[in-house]
Amino acid sequence: MPDISGKKVLVTAGPTHEPIDPVRFIGNHSSGKMGIAIAEEAAKNGAEVTLICGPSRVESSVSVRRIDVQSAQQMFDAVMGLQAENDVLVLSAAVADYRPKQVASNKIKKKDAALVIELEPTPDILASLGAKKRPDQLLVGFALETDNELQNAQSKLNRKNCDIIVLNSLQDAGAGFGHDTNRVTILDRHNNISTFELKSKAEVAKDILQKIKDYK
């Protein structure tokens, strides 16, 4: 894919919030900065970009079509509804792996006894896209790891039928959730591995877009 100008690119960003009751949720520390930077860079490269974003205070420009969602199910529904019409799918959102099996309709009152919440898996958006991916589509996943980083990222690339995986390690200072900087390693299906130094997320987005454009 030597050029993405005129291509349709879908990007997911941010966390998801899985409700426990009307005032509480299960979530994570993702700010959405990395995914939004990728969406903006794709738009600058001439792509028609749709950003599906979980709860985030980071703004995006008018050049990006933005769809705001809250939960993993909402993000799944939005992504799968747009899957067929996009050429490139970049799944950078930090989607919750689990959600409460039962959501209380009223605020749960604090008691002395322990509160037990049964969790169930959320839909696997990346795997679902990998199962439906056409030969002319490019699927980019993200892997946030704390140990055996390369091995786990390679396994995810194969299991989810991705073309490219962007690996983040929480062991790297200044990288990961909440920072304005990131340090990534990019793997692809042709066994290429590219490691980058710590950069601003805007610069990291350029590296990711270049890998997408260079992918054959």
Shape verdict: globular
- Estimate percent helicity: 25-40%
Binned strand content = 25-35%
Number of strands: 14
SSE ordering: EEEHEEHEEEHEHEEEEEH
Backbone structural class:
alpha/beta
User: Could you state the oligomeric state of the chains shown?
Assistant: single chain
Low-confidence stretches: none
The CA-CA distance between the termini, in Å, is: 6 Å
Biggest sheet layout: 8 strands, mixed
- Helical stretch count? 5
Would you identify the CATH H-level superfamily? CoaB-like
CATH topology: Rossmann fold
Number of domain modules:
1
Question: Which features does this protein show?
Answer:
Rossmann fold, eight-stranded mixed beta sheet, 216 residues, 5 helices
Describe this structure as you would to a colleague.
With 216 residues, the protein is of the alpha/beta class. The protein has a single domain (8-105, 116-214), classed as CoaB-like (Rossmann fold), CATH 3.40.50. Helices cover 26% and strands 26% of the residues. The protein contains 5 helices and 14 strands. Strands 5-4-1-6-9-10-12-13 form an 8-stranded mixed sheet, sandwiched between helices. Strands 2-3 form a two-stranded antiparallel sheet. A two-stranded antiparallel ribbon has the order 7-8. The radius of gyration is 17 Å and the shape is globular. The model has no long low-confidence stretch (mean pLDDT 94).
Itemize the secondary structure elements and their pairings.
Blueprint: E1 8-13, E2 18-19, E3 25-26, H1 33-44, E4 48-53, E5 65-68, H2 72-82, E6 88-91, E7 98-100, E8 119-121, H3 125-132, E9 138-145, H4 149-159, E10 164-169, E11 181-182, E12 184-188, E13 193-195, E14 199-200, H5 201-214
Parallel strand pairs: 1-4, 1-6, 4-5, 6-9, 9-10
Antiparallel strand pairs: 2-3, 7-8, 10-12, 11-14, 12-13
